[in-house]
From TrEMBL, chain A:
<protein>
    <recommendedName>
        <fullName>Nucleotidyltransferase domain-containing protein</fullName>
    </recommendedName>
</protein>
<dbReference type="InterPro" id="IPR043519">
    <property type="entry name" value="NT_sf"/>
</dbReference>
From TrEMBL, chain B:
<dbReference type="InterPro" id="IPR027443">
    <property type="entry name" value="IPNS-like_sf"/>
</dbReference>
<feature type="domain" description="Aspartyl/asparaginy/proline hydroxylase">
    <location>
        <begin position="35"/>
        <end position="175"/>
    </location>
</feature>
<dbReference type="InterPro" id="IPR007803">
    <property type="entry name" value="Asp/Arg/Pro-Hydrxlase"/>
</dbReference>
<protein>
    <recommendedName>
        <fullName>Aspartyl/asparaginy/proline hydroxylase domain-containing protein</fullName>
    </recommendedName>
</protein>
<dbReference type="Pfam" id="PF05118">
    <property type="entry name" value="Asp_Arg_Hydrox"/>
</dbReference>
């Protein structure tokens, strides 16, 4: 009997999801900083419903007095120690829980994984744990119980209110495409629909930000009059129209086409932003493996 | 700029496409037990095995002057053996080398420890991507697959594979010979292989130095060091400047020993007496 249990344990170890190794590495790196007070796993890994495509959802509690500093350097930290292949996307999907969310695409052992980091001041961790049913994986016992810092809330609000730059919008498109691809592979049709709609909105916002930044608040309105006055604008709108008239439930093929359209219009409207991300985009293409490219 | 760069790195010829495909297949399926090399000149993720060396054991990877013999690994890679034989060079050592994603060989000079004999290094890229490149004289040079590249590693240089996939090269150290002279007679830099790196402006320098300082103060000293070391791969910097920036960072936070350590490291890596 014990032999059977041992054998199954060995099999379980061999089949251990890679995301746990990714998480271990991240927790180990982040725990090196004394300002990190807690780390919680949330999402499918915490619920026990994860699969091989699941992202790693981590809430990172940071001492309130160090919160702003930590947010400011976390991209550099993700790039140098976590294997991020591009800057993190400021996550607009995650609920507001008093902190800031970022989605990173990180390379691990030849494959790309999605890392959702939610950075929160320590005083918000108890509420976040309750809300997300997060699973505590790290606690810095030396950190004590730091008091809230009144500077954190306005900093968070300012970050949430800041419009995304062209470079951040390109990263948003790449992250959304990554997420939609997972939905397609899993057959999650409703989420694929929702995120595909977001992708078209990202393309629109990118065009607005690059070509008509002062009228960004108009959203979908007045695009014709604001944008189509130049050849570049007209070409971008043609790409956008092709995206919004594509089937609302994407396939791998239509997703690949949408990605190409966004990158084409980004190159046309915001070439410097594309150039800054050129190596990241090429690495991303390698990992995305949309097999039925048109 | 191009003439100076040509002295340091250049394309010396092409590899037969069909043969390269076989070599690539072997390179991705045969080698195992890669020898990870650790050292102050690199970030980790640099692994090699020998194809021709002094002992015939693939796991002996510390290069030295010798008349090499075939290793057990090369014996199991017939297409690669043919490729090396067809070159007909006077080899000193031949390795297969893997540079993983996010791996860096920091700015350094090679051959400092070897005896003063004329020798040359050739790279034959087997698997590569645009995020794998060398940095020499303020330019990023991507060594495209399908070509034989000559590198003169006594110049300060660095190598990186920023985002993957893993880069696999054959690295051939050879002595001067008539065959090598023929191979390297007409050297050139293919269009698109060189990307001049932008200068590091004062504003950017202050930004990155501040980022590194914050990382170090938050307890991420290694990340701070790497953040500054990677500037060499993004910008034109005076020789050794990245090392100076790290020493300055440690000075700023009162870590005198670490600052002195990086100044010594700079001298060793760049062969400064």
């Amino acid at each position: 009997m014990s032999t059977c249990t041992e054998a199954i344990d060995q099999l379980a170890a061999v089949n251990r999801p890679v995301q746990l190794a990714v998480m271990e590495r991240i927790v180990e790196h982040l725990a090196a900083g004394p300002a990190v007070t807690h780390m919680l796993v949330r999402g499918s890994i915490a619920r026990g419903t994860s699969d091989r495509l699941s992202d790693v959802d981590l809430v990172v509690g940071v001492a309130p007095t160090a919160f702003e500093e930590f947010v400011t350097v976390h991209d550099a930290l993700a790039s140098t120690t976590l294997g991020a292949i591009m800057p993190g996307w400021p996550d607009t999907i995650v609920p507001r829980m008093g902190g800031l969310g970022y989605v990173h695409l990180i390379e691990h052992d030849g494959r790309l994984y999605q890392l959702d980091l939610y950075l929160a001041p320590t005083d918000k961790i108890a509420a976040i744990t309750k809300l997300t049913r997060g699973h505590l994986v790290y606690r810095n016992d030396k950190a004590g119980d730091p008091a809230p810092d009144p500077a954190v809330a306005p900093f968070v609000e300012a970050r949430l209110a800041a419009p995304l730059t062209c470079e951040q919008l390109i990263v948003e498109a790449l992250v959304l495409t990554w997420m939609i691809h997972k939905r397609i592979l899993r057959g999650q049709r409703f989420m694929a629909y929702a995120e595909h709609h977001m992708l078209a909105t990202t393309a629109r916002t990118l065009i607005r930000t690059a070509l008509s930044p002062r009228n960004a608040f108009y959203g979908w309105y007045h695009l014709d009059t604001d944008i189509s006055v130049t050849p570049i604008g007209r070409s971008c709108l043609r790409d956008l129209e092709a995206m919004i008239t594509a089937p609302s439930l994407p396939t791998s093929g239509s997703l690949a086409a949408s990605l190409e359209r966004i990158l084409t219009l980004a190159h046309r409207a915001a070439p410097q932003a594309v150039d800054a991300l050129r190596l990241s985009i090429e690495a991303y293409r390698h990992h995305l493996e949309l097999t039925d490219l048109p | 700029m191009t003439t100076s760069l040509l002295r340091q790195v250049a394309c010396a010829g092409a590899v037969d496409h069909a043969l390269l495909e076989h070599v690539r297949h072997e390179a991705l399926t045969v080698p195992s037990g890669w020898m990870a090399e650790y050292g102050e000149y690199q970030s980790g993720g640099w692994e090699t095995l020998s194809l021709l060396n002094r002992t015939g054991r693939a796991t002996d990877v510390t290069i030295t002057d010798c008349e090499p013999t075939e290793t057990d690994l090369l014996a199991a890679m017939p297409a690669t053996r043919q490729l090396l034989a067809d070159l007909g060079l006077h080899f000193m050592w031949a390795r297969i080398a893997r540079l993983d994603a996010a791996a860096y060989l920091w700015e350094h000079r090679d051959y400092g420890e070897l005896k003063d004999v004329e020798r040359h290094r050739l790279h034959i890229p087997i698997v590569t991507s645009s995020s794998a490149y060398l940095v020499l004289s303020g330019s990023a040079v991507h060594l495209a697959a399908g070509h034989i590249w000559r590198l003169t590693p006594t110049y300060a240089h660095g190598a990186c594979n920023r985002f993957g996939p893993a880069r696999v090269h054959l690295i051939l150290d050879c002595y001067a010979s008539p065959e090598l002279a023929v191979l390297t007679r007409d050297q050139y830099l293919p269009a698109g292989s060189v990307r001049p790196l932008p200068p590091l402006t004062d504003a950017l320098l202050r930004h990155h130095a501040a980022q590194a300082l914050r990382l170090a103060q938050l307890g991420y000293a290694k990340a701070a060091e790497e953040h500054l070391l990677r500037l060499f791969f993004d910008h034109t910097l005076p020789e050794g400047r990245a090392y100076d920036l790290i020493a300055d960072m440690y000075d700023a936070i009162g870590h005198d020993d670490a600052a002195d350590g990086w100044r010594e490291k700079k001298a060793v890596l760049l062969g400064i007496n």
